[in-house]
Design goal:
By secondary structure, the chain is α+β, with helices and mostly antiparallel strands. 32% of the residues lie in helices and 36% in strands. It comes from Chryseobacterium camelliae.
Amino acid sequence: MRFFKILAVIIVFLVGAYAASMYFFVEENKKFQIEKEIDYPLDKVFSQFNSLQHFTRWNNFFTSSQTMDIDYYTPYEGKGSAISYVDTKNDRGGEMFIRYENLNKTLKYQLFEGKNENPTLVDVKFKAISPEKTKIIWYVHTPKLSVLKRVENFWTEDRFAENIEKSMANLKNVLGNKVEKDNQMAAIKYDSLMIEKEEEKILLGINISTSNKKDALYKNVVMNYNKVYNYVTMDLGKKDDEFGYPMLMTDADNYKDKEVSYFIGIPLSKKVGITDNNFSFRTINPTQDYVMYYKGTYAGRIRAIQQLIQKAKKDEMRFGDIRQTFIERPTEDQNVNMKLSLSVYK
């Protein structure tokens, strides 16, 4: 009995000492700021923050969980927009609001976590450093914690900084794909032969062999594109602004053959785990290409391919695969809008 009394006294003493140290030496809440720069224009960056539908696609707080369920409330953009979220696996949930917006300058968020009635306040300021670079500054004010929970303030800032670091990497991937698509659309000159350098790409797709009979090939392309798209968006959970334009790779002159083999895939920022053996990754190394943009029937692309091959032969260049990048999704019974790239080398 005496032992338990002594133990109880020790426990009371330790709890009291802990509470006293928390009360006198640890702040009841935290205030800190974090600055980051990103190599994209101010308006494109801001639009990823003031739409919570965009925000939750790249912010690590939401993307790090596969079991997060999010509801969005109108307005979906700017002041007054809101979400509620529940993550059953990790036993967390809450609500988030945009309380203030000054377009391309400032946003003020409130985040209510769990049953805490006091929100975390996050003010985010945006500043254009140059036409292609933006500074983002987070001002964070955490809610007051009770004495016994105040120890959490020791790692709050580090945890927030780690989340921002991961979120910025995700945001760069999203904006990279979005800006690349916008730039490609703006630069299109149809039926003109150009020379371009292609950067390395990682494609997730499938290998196909099929008949080259009239219309049968394009129907097969559309069907297999849909398979890849559905796998990437539904099974892997990727959003449209997280990947690039679909691409078909095949021998440059196989349009004359009765049977055609090709690989059709979607560019991803990195390799991810896949469980379906029908799909595989293919890496495109940096190349120099002869390029033409083409719009019309799928069969009509052959003339543009012939022009690229003739140019390569005239310049005494050897050539590899032809890549067909679909600027617009391939759809049955509709014209295609595509970029044809013939890789060339000495």
